[in-house]
Amino acid sequence: MTDYRRIAAEGTPTGWFETLYAEAGAGRAEVPWDVPEASAHLRAYPLPPGEGRRALIVGCGNGRDAEHVAAAGYATTAFDISPTAIELARSRHPGSPVGYVVADLLDPPPAWRHGFDLVLESNNVQALPERIRARAIATVGTFVAPGGTLLVLAAAAVARSGDGPPWPLHRAEIDAFAVDGLRAVSVEHVATPETTFPGRWRAVFTRSGHDVRKSA
C-alpha cells in the first residue's frame, strides 16, 4: 500500500491529491482523511441554521463536511481539485443537494468572489507546502460575502516540521486569513490529547455587514 506522503513528495504541490484519490480508487493507497463522519471539530461548532444561505466547502474530499453543512440548511457548493474526489463525493451521496464541482483553490472561478455567507476551510491549507501556502490562505477569505463567516479548522504547530503533509499551522498563519476586509471574531487553540499534534485551531472570521452567526 503506497503511503500518501510518498505520493505527495513525488507529485506537484496540488496535483498529488488527484494521484492519491486515483491510487486509492485502485486499491493501492489509502486517503487518511476518508472517514465516514464530518470533522469532529466541525460537528462541535455551533453552526447556525442556514435558512438557504450560500456555503462553500474548500477541498471537500469525500463530501462528509459538505453534507453536514447542507443538513444545517445551507445551499452548499463543495469543491476539490481532484476530479476523482468529486466523483467519489457524488457517488457517496446520491441525491445530495450539494453542488460538487472540480475547482482549484489557487485559481478559483471569479464568480465566487464575495459570494458565500459561510466558507469552511477544514484541514486543507495544512496539506500545502509553505511556498504556496500564503497564496492559498489569502484566497480563502475572498470567498466570504459581506456579513459572511469564515470558519478555519487546522492542526496547530509549535515549530515547523519538515515531515509532512500535513504541516500544522502557526498562529501567524491563522491570523493571515484576516485579509481582504475580514476580521477575526475568535481564535481558539483546542487541546487534542488523542492525536500527535499539540492542539488544533478553530478560528472564526467575518466581513463587515450582518454576521451569519447572529442570525440564528
UniProtKB/TrEMBL annotation:
Q: Does the keyword Transmembrane apply?
A: yes
Domain of life (superkingdom): Bacteria
What Gene Ontology molecular-function terms does this entry list? Answer: methyltransferase activity
Q: What is the lineage of its organism?
A: Bacteria, Bacillati, Actinomycetota, Actinomycetes, Micromonosporales
Gene3D superfamilies the record matches? Vaccinia Virus protein VP39 (3.40.50.150)
Any idea what this protein is called? Answer: Class I SAM-dependent methyltransferase
Methyltransferase domain location, by residue?
56-148
Task: Give the matching SUPFAM superfamilies.
Answer: S-adenosyl-L-methionine-dependent methyltransferases
